[in-house]
Structure formats: C-alpha cells, structure tokens
Design a protein that fits this description.
Layout: H1 3-28, H2 40-88, H3 94-120, H4 127-141, H5 148-173, H6 181-196, H7 207-230, H8 243-248
Helix pairs in contact: 1-7, 2-3, 2-5, 2-6, 2-7, 3-4, 4-5, 6-7
C-alpha cells in the first residue's frame, strides 16, 4: 500500500472520528446548555496540555530526522572511503591494483543490490558484506610496498579501510527503528488526550468549529505519520538512499 494512501486514510479516519464524536455529543447536550460556562481552569489546562504535546511532537520529529540524516552520512562516508581506496591504489602494480578495485566493486555491488533491500526491512548488515570487506582489507594489508611512493600510500589506504569498516557498522546499527515502543505509546496516548480535550470546551456543530476540529485532528495524524515515516532511516518513503555509491561508482550497473 502506498505511503501517501496510508497518510490520506489516517488523516481521513482521524477527522471522521472527531467529527462523529462531536456530532453525537452535540445531540446529547440539551438545548439549554451554555458553552460560555466552561470553567477557566479547563481552558487553561487544555491550552497547557496542547503546548506540552506540541513540544513532545517537535522533539520526536527532530530526533527521527537526525537519525535519518546520520544514516545518510554513514552511507556517504562509506562510499567516499571506498572511492578513495580505489583511486589511491593507482600507485600499486597493475595486478594488485586490479585485485583491489575488483574487490571494491564487488563490495559496492553487493551492498547496493542485495544488502540494501535487507536494511529496508530493518535488518542488520550481513556476514557476506563483512567477508567482502575483509577481502579488501587483505588486499591492502598483505601487499608489501616496493618503493617509497607505494610506502607513502600504504598507511592512508589502511586508514580508509578502517573508515569503511566503521561506517558499515554504524550503517547497520541505524537500520532499525529509532523510536522506542514506550515513546510511541506516549505519542499516541498524548494525541488521544489532546484531541479529546477539545470536547471539554463544548464544541458545537457550527461549520467553523467542525472545520477547526477536523483540521486539528488531521494535523495530529499527519505529524504522527511523519514521525513513523522517518523512524526507519532505510525503509520508507523519506529514507536514506544509496546515491553516494551511485555517484562514486558510476561504472557499475547498480540496481538501486
């Protein structure tokens, strides 16, 4: 199911529920009821709870957006380091250089075409990518430099392999959801309480009040959907992409 369809259904359902409750609640209230008799303390508490929940929503959105940005940065670092390994191996003999570049290409192809799909499902990095990275490490560390020029390139290449390893591990750790279940419980409960409090103000069936109630509930639904969409950095619509790999290795026929 399309995520935009899910969003539309969630917002429509939120509006329908709120407007239905308002409709039946109005039929229950007698004609002699005066909405101006709402105690001031209720209006104050409703306002304060709304402000507190708005702050919580803002922090949640900032948190998941930061997680998504960090995941994209890990991908960029990994792709850049692999590109540096491929380029800096130019100083090595053709046989060694060819082996390093072939293994780098094999690693990139596997990550983008195979491992990325697993990460979209919230799974960790695979053992296979670790094996391919280990081959790159062996290609770099097992070669003994024969000239001063090769010796100067050796340590930077080893450092780049370490950067790839670190970025790969960080990428795997960021593949799952970033929001704990208890936080989701608080967000959903807070949404129900915040939307429910508008009925303490004795909402009427006028077009203006119904419109505002519907828009308010739809906004809450949209913000919760936004948090849910960002909560999986590799798995949903607004997610980290493999673009850094595609940009650094345009010669590979990558499927992503």
């Amino acid at each position: 199911m399309s995520e935009w369809l899910v969003l539309s259904l969630a917002m429509a359902a939120a509006c329908a529920v709120v407007l239905s409750i308002a409709f039946f609640n109005h039929r229950r209230i007698g004609e002699d009821d005066d909405p101006n008799q709402t105690p001031d303390v209720i209006e104050y508490m409703t306002m304060m709870i709304g402000v507190i929940y708005a702050i919580v929503l803002g922090l949640a959105i900032a948190g998941v957006w930061e997680g998504r940005g960090a995941a994209q940065e890990y991908v960029r670092q990994e792709a850049q380091a692999l590109h540096e390994i491929s380029v800096r191996s130019q100083v090595y003999p053709a046989e060694v250089r060819g082996r390093i570049r072939a293994d780098v290409d094999a690693y990139v192809t596997y990550v983008v075409d195979t491992e990325w799909k697993r990460m979209a499902d919230g799974e960790d990095v695979t053992e296979r990518s670790g094996e391919l990275l280990e081959k790159i490490r062996r290609d770099v560390t097992d070669y003994e430099p024969q000239t001063d020029h090769e010796g100067q390139a050796y340590q930077p290449l080893v450092d780049q392999v370490a950067i790839v390893d670190d970025a790969r591990n960080a990428r795997g750790q960021s593949a799952g959801a970033t929001m704990p279940g208890v936080v989701w419980f608080g967000l959903i409960t807070g949404a129900l309480v915040t939307v429910g409090l508008i009925f303490t103000l004795q909402i009427r069936r006028s077009f203006r009040e119904m419109l505002l109630a519907g828009l308010f509930s739809a906004l809450i639904a949209f913000l919760l959907f936004l948090i849910w969409d960002f909560d999986s950095p590799f798995g949903r619509g607004i997610s980290a992409t493999a673009e850094p790999f595609l940009a650094q290795f345009p010669h590979l026929d990558l499927k992503s």
